[in-house]
Design brief:
Layout lengths: L3 H4 L13 H8 L2 H12 L4 E2 L9 H14 L2 E6 L2 E6 L1 H7 L3 H16 L2
Antiparallel strand pairs: 1-3, 2-3
Helix pairs in contact: 2-4
Keywords: DNA-binding, Transcription, Transcription regulation
Organism: Streptomyces violarus
Protein name: DNA-binding transcriptional ArsR family regulator
Length: 116
């Protein structure tokens, strides 16, 4: 049995077969969450929450990460005191082939058009 301190550091994630298309699309419909996913996709490996410089409050940032995690778009794990974030690219590609790449490509083209 694990101690309460250890189990409280574990974050719930949907299993691969529990990820639903409508939840993924909802999670990626918000500009801040899409920005987080674009940064994760552009990087190699996991990034800490503090890496992201979003123009919103800390509580709003926490909400965005929770929506992404609960929808199955990202996986969050603690490394020491840092919460690390990784894109669940393989899971999403297996369930919805081409979707993530198409959304990231479209978001990149839009950002180029809008200067962001």
């Amino acid at each position: 049995m694990t101690s309460p301190a250890v189990s409280s550091r574990s974050l719930p994630h949907p299993e691969c077969d529990e990820i639903r298309l409508e939840d993924v699309l909802h999670a990626l419909s918000d500009p801040m969450r899409l920005r987080i996913v674009r940064e994760l996709a552009a990087g190699s490996g996991e990034l800490s929450c503090s890496h992201f410089d979003l123009p919103v409050t800390k509580s709003t940032t926490t909400h965005h990460f929770r929506v992404l995690r609960e929808s199955g778009v990202i996986r969050q794990v603690y490394q020491g005191t840092a919460k690390m974030n990784g894109l669940r690219r393989d899971d999403l590609e297996g369930l919805f082939p081409g979707l993530l790449d198409a959304l990231l490509d479209a978001a990149g083209r839009q950002a180029g058009r809008l200067g962001g």
